[in-house]
Amino acid sequence: MGNLLLLLPTLLFSCTKEIATPVPGDTGIVYTMPEESAPHEGTWLQWPHEYQYGKTFRNRLDATWIAMTKELRQGEKVHIIAYDQTEQERITALLEQENVPLSNIDFSIYPTDDVWVRDNGPIYVKDKHGQLFIEDWGFNGWGRKAAYDNCNAIPAKIAADRHIQKINLNSVMVNEGGSVEIDGKGVLMACKSSVLNENRNPGMTQQQAEEIFTKYLGIRKVIWLEGKAGLEITDMHIDGFARFANASTIITMNNDDLDYWQVPQDDINTLYAATNSQSLNYKFVKVPLTQNEVVTTYGKNLGKASYINYYIANNSVLVPNYNDPNDAVAMNIIQQLYPGKKVVGIDCRNLFANGGMVHCVTQQQPR
User: Fold this and answer.
1) Closest CA to 190 of 218, 165, 232, 224
2) Which residues, 6 or more positions from 67, have their beta carbon under 8 angstroms from its beta carbon?
3) Using an 8 Å Cβ cutoff, are 164 and 133 in contact?
4) Residue-wise DSSP of 99-166
């Protein structure tokens, strides 16, 4: 995700056009990425700070990070990345002020450019023996549209400090976590516009990308979505309008809401026809956009917003909320998908103004 300064009014995520490429057996698979609902050791957060976009930016976002931390720590560790020691002390004071216990919370002090740990943070994978690794993919600020040097260094720093073996993929592929969705059964959805873009991976072919995804993420089939470069900073990440809710289910929106999200009708049809690694149709669960246009706490109108960008934690599911009548509708639908977890609303009004929601600012570390 990117910053508001680089965002167009309609905001985020529309991409589709399925080109499915099955991979025979497990040929070429070396590492496999556990899907998001697999048990977590913890969740990584990059806390907002003042050093890139100022104190007003930071102050408008603190409450969202406090709410996420308060909920997440009840079911797993929360690994907070603070810009410096001063920021760690400020964050600690904020949590104490809101009566959030510091147990199950730890801090790492690393400079960051922004908050979007989903895109720049570590991608955890396992080998065939179950050993955990950190994959350090390239990150270049969504095609050099924003500062990225600090954030690109985060996976390597975590790997070194946590003594987890690192797989250096910086020279192999630029790949943001929000640009790929996996179903946990060998299928990946991605937008060409944010992967095979000259501002990310110049000259890379579809076949080359597929081989990389197979080797490093354990993928047997790729559903390619065409996407649309240039509408917003990510060049069309998928995790704002279509996700794998589980191995057999895609959660998305209805036709009219996808149209509002600027997804072309042909692409909507293609998305609804997507099939899994066994060529069986996915089930579809459709969640409405907000009923009203979202307004930030400081009065900025953002248009309607999506609930698809939620995060699956160990004990809970963190769902974007916008002070809208459809908050309850969306949470009820999502609760039915995860009956063993508690659905919790996280106020994302101000975060949405900066280009993303809950999923964009969280990154799971598997057990």
Assistant:
1) 224
2) 346, 347
3) yes
4) T---TTEEEEE---S-S-HHHHS-EEEE-TT--EEEEEEE--HHHHTS--HHHHTHHHHHHHHHT--E
Question: Per-residue pLDDT for 219 more than 70?
Answer: yes
Contact 317, 342 (CB under 8 A): yes
The CA distance from 242 to 13, in Å, is 9
Residue 2 has a pLDDT of 43
pLDDT digits (tens, 9 = 90+) for 120-175: 999 999 999 999 999 999 999 999 999 999 999 999 999 999 999 999 999 999 99
Please give the structure tokens belonging to residue 290.
Answer: 């907000």
Closest CA to 68 of 347, 328, 325, 342: 347
Cα distance between residue 76 and residue 90, in whole Å? 22
Rg (CA), the chain: 19
pTM (global) more than 0.90: yes
Instruction: Report pLDDT digits (tens) over 275-310.
Output: 999 999 999 999 999 999 999 999 999 999 999 999
Show the domains of the chain with their CATH numbers. Answer: 4-366 (3.75.10.10)
How many Cβ atoms sit within 10 Å of the Cβ of residue 114?
26
Structure tokens at 297: 């706490």
Continuous segment of H or E residues that includes residue 211:
helix 206-217
CA angle 92, 94, 98 (to 5 degrees): 115
Q: Residue 337 has what DSSP assignment?
A: H
Q: Which helix (H) or strand (E) holds 225?
A: strand 221-225
Contacts of 213 (CB under 8 A, 6+ apart): 180, 188, 190, 219, 222
Largest CA distance in the chain: 55
d(CA 149, CA 141): 8
Phi, psi of 47 (to 5 degrees): -75, 140
| In the block, residue with structure tokens 């704002």 | 240
